[in-house]
Amino acid sequence: MYIPKLPLFFCVTLIILNVLDVITTYYGLRIGLSEANPLFKHHIVPVKLIAPVILMVLVQFTYIFYEKHSFLVGLTVNGFILILLNVLYTVIVISNVTHILLARCG
After folding, report:
1. Is residue 23 a contact partner of residue 98, using CB atoms and an 8 Å limit?
2. How many separate domains does the chain show?
3. pLDDT by residue for the chain (106 residues), tens digit each?
4. CA distances from 22 to 3, 10, 34, 77, 105 (A)
5. Torsion of CA 59, 64, 67, 12, to 10 degrees
6. In angstroms, rounded to a whole number, what is the distance separating the alpha carbons of residues 52 and 54?
7. How many other β-carbons are positioned within 10 Å of the β-carbon of residue 78?
8. CA–centroid distance for 51 within its chain
9. What distance in Å separates the CA atoms of residue 70 and residue 49, rounded to the nearest whole number?
C-alpha cells in the first residue's frame, strides 16, 4: 500500500505537537497555571493522551473515504484536516509556552 509522504509528515508533526501540548500543559499546571479548555479541566492526563489517538483515527477515516476527492487544488480532505489540526496544535503549544513564560517572568 502506498502511503503519501505529505500526510505522513503531517501525522508525525501532529503527534509531536500533541506530546508538546501534554508536556507544556503539565508543566504549566505544576507552576500554578490552570487548564483553559473546559473539556480537559478535570481529567487532564488521560483525556489529553487519548484525544490525539481519536483525532488520528478520524483523520484516517477521512483518508479512507475521501482520498480521491480534491478539496482545493491538489489538497485532499484528509490533507486539509491534517494541516488544520497542525495549525491548531501549533497555536495551542505557542499559547502554553507564552503563558508559562509570562508566569515565570511576572
Report:
1. no
2. 1
3. 444 566 778 878 888 998 898 899 889 989 988 887 776 666 666 666 677 777 777 777 766 665 555 555 556 667 777 888 889 999 999 999 999 999 988 7
4. 28, 18, 13, 27, 22
5. 40
6. 5
7. 24
8. 9
9. 31
